[in-house]
Amino acid sequence: MFPAKERLFASLAGGQSPDALFIACADSRINPNLITQTEPGDLFILRNIGNIVPAYGEMLGGVSSAIEYAVLGLGVSSIIVCGHSDCGAMKALMAPEKAGLDKMPTVASWLRNAEAARAALGDFSAEDAGPATVRSLSEQNVLLQIAHLRTHPAVAAGLARGTLFLQGWFYDIGSGEISILDEQTRTTVSIADSIANLEATEAEKA
Q: Which of 16, 82, 126, 171 is the most exposed place for a label (fewest CB within 10 A)?
């Protein structure tokens, strides 16, 4: 691989200047650069179980420092939170006993940062929850983590200046389709449709 990318890595040897912070799940099936068709150096990537962003002050550490550095140190112009289908973290939220969270107290504590997403779905039987419910919870979780992002000082300042843009994505592992989540309507639109709508809008302006 390296010989084919020799010029790219040579250009990156002296530093990085990514366009976006990409927050994704640690799931081994998720490859941010593959999903976005980007090259090394294009994304500053933050991964953890459940693509979670604790609200500022709740758990200051690796996540909050990565966000602060991406915005203030690297000057990224956008932050994307990407959830995905068949997410083990979301399944554990729905059925903690089945997931064995009683034996994983650190994981259980971490997932509390997504508990409000589960509450947003209302009452349901974890045993009857299929892929559609897992997807709904994953989408609610993405929206929740974007709300948490807004509590981080560096993010809030960037949004106030108009230099930072937040976006939520849902990635379907089986189909490879990416959907964009709308914070206001809490609905999704495929990235292909989003691009088509944008092109149509630009055409109308021309």
A: 16
